[in-house]
Amino acid sequence: MLEFDGLCKSYGADRVLDGVSFTVAPGSMFGFCGANGAGKTTTMRIAMGLARADAGEVRWRRRPLDQALRRRIGYMPEERGLYPRMRVAEQLTYLARLHGLDAAPAARAADHWAERLGLGERRRDQVEKLSLGNQQRVQLAAALVGRPEVLILDEPFSGLDPVGVDALAEALLEQVRGGVPVVFSSHQLDLVERLCDAVGILARGTMVAAGPVAELRRREAGRLLRVVVPDAPAGWAAGLPGVRVASERAGDTLLELAAGADDQAVLAAALRTGRVTHFAWREPTLVELFREAVAAPGRAVAA
Ligand SMILES: Nc1ncnc2c1ncn2[C@@H]1O[C@H](COP(=O)(O)OP(=O)(O)OP(=O)(O)O)[C@@H](O)[C@H]1O
């Protein structure tokens, strides 16, 4: 297990992390989500020894991370850290050697990852001459080239085109299949939902929701009701007790019901306006869970 356990961190009077805990099992992918400034980068930097926690620790296989263990981690920092003048293959080989590979396997790993991430033709280019997206691919290759036991990636998908996203997603899934625990932060919740076994949503330094996406969605089901009444006048549901209109478009209405609100009263109201063609509870999407978790301080959801 990769365990983040009770991380606390303040910068001056600012409490940036307030007891952040989560675990990532070998062979699983954890999506680390949260608003800008929530503390994701700080959490990852603490894991990598680039910032010091005031309390708490990060463990891999029950051992607190030290510099030797960190060498086994493939890390992609938010501030991209490449040597701008080095050529792609040379750089990747160098980094693989820093992770302990011999010269020949390091060169092979560099070629392999350059190819896998679509950089085959750029192998001999200097990094600073690459487009931003391609520099990003080199940075990802740099995290993967040392045969990591663990991957910690800070916004690895940002700036990639859809082909790059697919190449990286496939590479990460392959690592997961090989037993590597992967943590990545992202604002691309569709990707998180597609790829991750579990997610954590951080808000103001606290994990406000954590668990498998399907369980979080199920747990929050029973509050969103979709009602389709093609001929209903706009605003038909406004004012029903315990009901908030989340969205309404051409007779297709999404309602959020407070605990104890009467769904049958909603149905009766809908029927008074016309023929009801759809009436069903709907599980929230990850985006809706995110908005809810980030908007409501103190409301923790764990699956
Ligand atoms: N070295 C530092 N000194 C002072 N404050 C810092 C420092 N590093 C981070 N912070 C503050 O800590 C908070 C959390 O920042 P962090 O970068 O961890 O958030 P994040 O969740 O990664 O955000 P984003 O999604 O925007 O990348 C922010 O308020 C930030 O300003």
TrEMBL record:
Pfam families attached to this UniProt entry: ABC_tran (PF00005), DrrA1-3_C (PF13732)
Molecular function terms, GO-annotated: ATP binding; ATP hydrolysis activity
Keyword ATP-binding: yes
Domain of life per record: Bacteria
PROSITE patterns: ABC_TRANSPORTER_1 (PS00211), ABC_TRANSPORTER_2 (PS50893)
Gene3D superfamilies linked: P-loop containing nucleotide triphosphate hydrolases
Protein name from the UniProt record: ABC-2 type transport system ATP-binding protein
Organism the protein comes from: Geodermatophilus pulveris
